[in-house]
Every structure is written in C-alpha cells, then in structure tokens.
C-alpha cells in the first residue's frame, strides 16, 4: 500500500511545484506588461505532467539486471520547456494573464485539497489499524 501512497504523494508534490512555478511566471508576465521587448513566459503544465508520468522520464538502464530507473528530476523536465519564449516582443495581454493566473490559483488550491484528503485517508488507515 505504501507504493500507491508514495506515487500519489509524489504526483501531488510535483503538481504543486509546477503550479507554484507557473504562478511565478504568470505574475512576472503581469509585472512586465509595459516593459518594451518583454516576451511572455509560461510552461505547459499538462505536457510536463504527462512527460513526468511517462516511461520516457525514467532513467535509462543498460543491463537487464540493473534496478529499474527512478524518474528524472522534475527540474530537468521543466528546463526542457521553459527556455522557449512565446510569441513576439510585447505580447502580454493583461486580461488573459489575469485569467490564467486565477485559473492556476484555483487548480493549485484543488491540488492542496487533494493532498489534504490523502493525508486524512492515511491518518484514518493508521488510527483504524491500531484498534
């Protein structure tokens, strides 16, 4: 059972980290709305999560007797996406950025609620198992 819990907590940890990082990028876009030559920055949350969960994110093994590889560090996966600038200079739309920031905040809070529920389930399993 710990394996399932570990996977769930790891996914929630990564999702919170990505949401937090995306919030920083979107806030930076809003702060630089009037900066000449500024290009908006963002990360594709869904693509990064899919990449993280795919077998491609596992470390490669070169021999059948090697242990199965662990997942690559999420920072490495983010780096592959963050260097890409989006569009032409001065392409920040304030209203669109605020909508995306609000949506990201709501999804961050939903992820926190999911984490809270998982912790409640774990606590219940521990306390009920002690009877």
Question: Features of this protein?
Answer:
131 residues; mainly alpha; 0% strand
Structure report:
This protein has 131 residues and is an all-alpha fold. The chain has one domain. It is built from 4 helices and no strands. α1 runs antiparallel to α2 and α1 (2-31) runs antiparallel to α4 (94-129). The relative contact order is 0.17. The model has no long low-confidence stretch (mean pLDDT 84).
Tell me the total number of β-strands.
0
Number of DSSP helical runs: 4
**What is the H/E string?**
HHHH
Mean pLDDT over the full residue set: 84
Helix fraction by DSSP (H/I, runs of at least 4): 55-70%
Please give the alpha-carbon distance between the first and last residues. Answer: 19 Å
Q: Regions with pLDDT < 50 over 5+ consecutive residues?
A: none
What amount of the residues lies in strands? Answer: under 5%
Structural class: mainly alpha
Largest sheet: none
Radius of gyration: 19 Å
| Overall shape | flat
Counted up, domains total 1
């Amino acid at each position: 059972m710990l394996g399932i819990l570990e996977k769930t907590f790891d996914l929630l940890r990564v999702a919170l980290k990505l949401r937090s990082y995306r919030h920083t990028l979107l806030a930076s876009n809003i702060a630089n709305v009037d900066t000449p030559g500024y290009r908006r920055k963002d990360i594709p949350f869904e693509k990064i999560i899919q990449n993280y969960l795919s077998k491609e994110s596992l470390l490669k093994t070169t021999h059948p007797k090697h242990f199965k590889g662990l997942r690559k560090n999420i920072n490495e996966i983010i780096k592959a996406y963050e260097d890409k600038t989006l569009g032409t200079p001065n392409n920040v739309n304030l209203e669109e950025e605020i909508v995306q920031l609000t949506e990201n905040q709501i999804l961050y809070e939903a992820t926190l609620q999911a984490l809270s529920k998982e912790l409640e389930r774990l606590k219940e399993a521990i306390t009920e198992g002690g009877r």
